[in-house]
Design goal:
Layout lengths: L2 H9 L8 E7 L10 E7 L3 H11 L3 H7 L3 E5 L3 E10 L2 E11 L5 H5 L8 H9 L2 E2 L2 H19 L14 H5 L1 H14 L5 H16 L3 E5 L8 E7 L4 E5 L1 H8 L8 E2 L2 H6 L7 E9 L2 E9 L5 H45 L4 H16 L1 E9 L5 E8 L3 H5 L3 E2 L3 H9 L3 E3 L21 E8 L2 E11 L7 H35 L9 H18 L3 E9 L1 H8 L1 H18 L5 E6 L2 E7 L3 H17 L14 E9 L6 H17 L5 E3 L8 H4 L12 H19 L1
Parallel strand pairs: 5-6, 22-23
Antiparallel strand pairs: 1-2, 1-5, 3-4, 4-5, 7-8, 7-12, 8-9, 10-11, 11-12, 13-14, 13-18, 14-15, 16-17, 17-18, 19-21, 19-22, 20-21
Helix pairs in contact: 8-9, 8-12, 9-12, 12-16, 13-16, 18-19, 19-20
């Protein structure tokens, strides 16, 4: 067809009434640096639009043709145009359509079009008179023109068309129908993809004798569609994306013989063909690929039978995939249950972090990794365990939510799979040998919708990139890991609250309630085993004056220092509690009164010699301690009796001048020396030597009474 006739035929399309059309042809024998396309025919509606379009398209005509797809462009002061590359009768051609503009007018760009001293405002009325269109409308016009051009590219039939049969069943052919029916019955019994594909392809080859045939099925991750030759073609033909797959399964091409056009050729450059008949593989609304017959004119009746067979294959493939997914999920559930049992045996946070990281790395064969937890303020992150790196150094790193790869995952709550840290636009960072394989996975650790941390893994053992399957597996495990971390923290928090319920928050000693429980337990044990038990009550002298003069903060510090002195003076098996205010109580299991007096004296001396905060400001009222002692069984056999006896002894020590030890009074036959340190004790200012002599008098009398 002459090029002028081609343009006239295209211009007859109602959609092109407002457009100028220009056809370009590749020149023969031109050098690479020259323009390779020249105008060979044109139908002009608007000269200005034609000139602007020429300046825009002609410069890059070679590039547009190599792309082998229609292009819609915006240029100049808001003009629209389209270009369609195609080959006809051995000629490489490009059709350019122009003459419309977008709704708004860009005055700044319009000013560049003014010539010979004119201005943009002189062109404004002219541009306003042009027809307007949207980008989508121009795309639709270009698609209509492309489909019209394809009609010129189809080979002409040399024989007259066959009239439709009187009975459709006669056209289908009994033999082909029988073969297809038997194949569909066989498909119901197979359980593998290989067997399913083999039955379908063998049946088509036997019944319809296609020249060549190929099959496209999704890969393991479902993100691409490798195309495989199954009859008369090489095994590997290339890979399609979900977008390029649409070229073969679009409604205007599915189940009919169409020209092998430029877009198809660009999608599969290794496949040479003239015509193609694609049959989409679709089941339950999901695209599974396609089966295509090449270089064969498939009749409508044959297409109907093949479509039925391909549809049955698609349904079976979907069933096989669903069964495989269910089996995989069951296996994963069993594995996660096993891992749950393992993690439930761990009650330490550090051991839990170590186990989680070890299991996660084994699941996807990673050699490096870390666990990061978000601080309570929600701003910073802390590395709590590492694999393949030094933990102490890692813990010193300053990490923040929203910063870096892990910080971004912590902020968004979305997992991240990176195949190359240097090329991935989401990361785009220099590797600096940090990652051996440049591939990594970051998984958020979540409790419901709250992100509590990030699990990072990198460097597969085989140094290959991580896959989407690795991401899915790790995501499932991360949910379990998050629950285990929460469980351990709850247990530790519970233990902490339990500890707070039995301890004094200021000194860290046991409180009065716990003391009663433990003392009663020790009394029962002492009764059963015939052991001694002694209770020491310690009260700080002049503490109210000290608190008033030095302040409550100094008073609190004094109480904590006193608690430390008492704890350091006792054995691990002994029990010490803050009984109330400035009063403390120590329980010494298996200890006689004489032995307890030695311990009490050590406590008294340590407190007397301690320089408490601000004590230098009150020399006449510095802190000392009075102590009262009572023992089981001689001073009492119950909690109340022992506490009462030691309390009476304590206040007797207070009454005798403070900073001294008094043992509980029992019976008169033990002598006066047993019950008091010295009736002739000098005043509080007397030296420590007098106190020590009184203490030795008590010990000597006590030993004589036992002898």
């Amino acid at each position: 067809m002459p090029f002028g006739d081609l343009l006239a035929d295209l211009k007859a399309l109602p959609a092109l009434a407002r457009y100028s059309l220009t056809l370009y042809r590749r020149r023969n024998g031109t050098v690479a640096s020259a323009q390779r396309f020249e105008s060979c025919a044109t139908v002009v509606e608007d000269p200005l639009c034609r000139e602007v379009s020429r300046q825009f398209f002609e410069e890059n005509m070679e590039v547009f043709f190599d792309e082998a797809t229609p292009s819609v462009c915006r240029y100049g002061g808001g003009f629209f145009g389209f270009l369609i590359p195609f080959t006809l009768s051995g000629e490489d051609l490009c059709l350019v359509g122009d003459g419309v503009r977008e709704e708004s007018i860009d005055l700044w760009q319009l000013a560049s079009l003014a010539r010979n001293g004119g201005d943009a405002f002189s062109l404004l009325p002219y541009v306003e008179s042009l027809a307007t269109a949207s980008y989508e409308e121009v795309e639709e016009v270009a698609e209509q023109v492309r489909r019209r051009i394809e009609l010129y590219l189809l080979p002409a039939r040399t024989e007259p068309p066959v009239p439709p049969p009187a009975h459709p069943q006669d056209a289908l052919g009994d033999a082909a129908l029988s073969v297809v029916s038997q194949a569909m019955e066989r498909l119901d019994k197979v359980s593998t993809v290989t067997a399913c594909v083999a039955i379908c392809c063998e049946t088509i080859v036997t019944a319809f004798q296609p020249a060549r045939m190929a099959l496209a099925l999704p890969d393991a991750e479902g993100k691409s569609f490798p195309v495989t030759g199954v009859w008369g073609l090489p095994e590997e033909l290339g890979t399609l994306t979900p977008e390029t797959l649409q070229l073969f399964v679009a409604p205007d091409k599915a189940k009919r013989t169409v020209l092998w056009d430029g877009k198809m050729r660009a999608a599969l450059p290794d496949l040479r063909a003239t015509v193609c008949t694609p049959f989409p593989l679709k089941a339950q609304g999901e695209r599974l690929g396609f089966l295509a017959i090449f270089d064969t004119d498939v009749a409508p009746n044959q297409a109907l039978l093949i479509s039925m067979l391909v549809g049955a294959m698609a349904g079976k493939l979907a069933t096989i995939d669903k069964d495989a997914t269910r089996s995989k999920e069951n296996a994963l559930s069993e594995r996660l249950m096993s891992l749950t049992d393992t993690l439930l045996q761990i009650d330490s946070k550090d051991l839990l972090y170590e186990s989680i990281l070890k299991i996660a790395s084994e699941l996807i064969d990673a050699t490096q990794g870390s666990i990061m937890l978000i601080d309570k303020d929600g701003v910073g992150m802390q590395i709590v365990f590492t694999l393949g790196m030094t933990l102490n150094i890692a813990r010193c790193l300053q990490l923040k939510v929203g910063k870096g790869i892990a910080g971004m995952v912590a902020k968004t709550g979305q997992p991240l799979l990176v195949n190359d840290v240097e090329k991935d636009s989401r990361v785009a960072m220099a590797n600096r040998m940090r990652f051996k394989s440049k591939s990594l996975i970051c998984i958020p650790l979540k409790l419901k919708e709250k992100v509590i941390g990030v699990l990072n893994l990198s460097d597969k053992k085989n140094l290959r990139p991580f896959t989407h399957s690795d991401l899915q597996l790790l995501t499932s495990f991360a949910n379990l890991a998050s629950l285990m971390i929460e469980r351990t923290e709850v247990l530790e928090e519970s233990e902490r609250f339990e500890q707070l319920s039995v301890t004094d928050p200021l000194t860290g000693l046991y409180n009065r309630r716990f003391l009663k429980s433990r003392l009663e337990e020790e009394l029962n044990r002492s009764m059963r085993q015939g052991l001694n038990l002694t209770v020491i009550f310690i009260d700080l002298d002049f503490f109210k004056n000290y608190n008033d003069l030095c302040g409550h903060l100094a008073g609190d510090e004094a109480l904590k220092l006193t608690a430390d002195i008492i704890k350091e003076s006792l054995r691990e098996m002994d029990i010490v509690a803050r009984y109330g205010g400035e009063e403390f109580c120590a329980v010494l299991p298996g200890t006689s009164k004489a032995e307890a007096m030695i311990v009490a004296e050590r406590i008294r001396c340590e407190i007397e010699n301690k320089r408490f905060p601000g004590a230098s400001d009150i020399p006449l009222r510095r802190l000392t301690a009075s102590l009262g002692i009572a023992s089981f069984p001689e001073d009492g056999r119950t909690f109340n009796d022992l506490v009462h006896a030691s309390d009476v002894a304590l206040y007797e020590a207070k009454a005798r001048g403070r900073n001294r030890i008094v043992a509980a009074r029992t019976s008169a036959d033990r002598g006066e020396a047993v019950h008091e340190l010295s009736d002739q004790r000098p005043a509080q200012t007397q030296s420590n030597l007098a106190k020590t002599l009184d203490f030795n008098t008590y010990l000597e009398a006590s030993l004589q009474s036992k002898g």
